C-alpha cells in the first residue's frame, strides 16, 4: 500500500508525463506493489441521435480499438519511464461513453492469479494489521467466507459425496465377478 501523498505524487507524475492530447481526462490511477493502472476518458464517437444500440456499441468498440492502436507508442514510452522510475508494471485502460476497457493487466501469483482489485483487498488487510502477508490475508478471507457459509459448504460437500457414489456405480465401475460363497455341506 502507498500513502495518499505518494499516490498524489504518482498521479501528478502521470498527469505531467502523459501527452496533453492522450486523454480528455485522467480519470483513475490505481497502484499496488506490482502494477499501476492508468485509465483515462476518451471522446465518444459522434453518432446520429436515432442510432441503434448495436450501432452505438460498435462505434464505442471501434473508438477504443482505434485509440489503443494510435496511442500504443506514446503509452509504451510513458510505461517504460514509469516502470523504471516506480518499479511496477503499467497497465492501460479507457472510459468511453460509459464503457470501460482495460488493454493490459497484471495477474500476480498469490496462491492463485488475482487481478488488481482483489490484490488491493489483501493489501488493505495487511495495512490494517489483520494479516502479515498476502497469503495470510487470503487465508483470512477464506476463513471468513467459511464461517459465514458453513451450512452451505456442508451441503455442497454432501452433494459432492453423492456425486462420487453415483459416479462409482456407473458403467465403468469395476464389478466383483466372484460368485457368492456356497453354504458348507
Q: Quick summary of this structure?
A:
The protein contains 5 helices and 6 strands, in the order αββαββββααα. The chain has 185 residues and is α+β, with helices and mostly antiparallel strands.
Characterize the structure shown:
This protein is of the alpha+beta class and about 180 residues long. Helix content is about 50%, strand content about 15%. The chain contains 5 helices and 6 strands. The strands form 2 sheets. The chain has a 4-stranded mixed beta sheet with strand order 1-2-3-4. The chain has a two-stranded antiparallel ribbon with strand order 5-6. Strand 2 (about 35-40), helix 2 and strand 3 (about 90-95) form a beta-alpha-beta unit. Helix 3 (about 115-125) packs across helix 4. The longest helix has about 35 residues, at about 55-85. The radius of gyration is 27 Å and the shape is extended. The model has no long low-confidence stretch (mean pLDDT about 85).
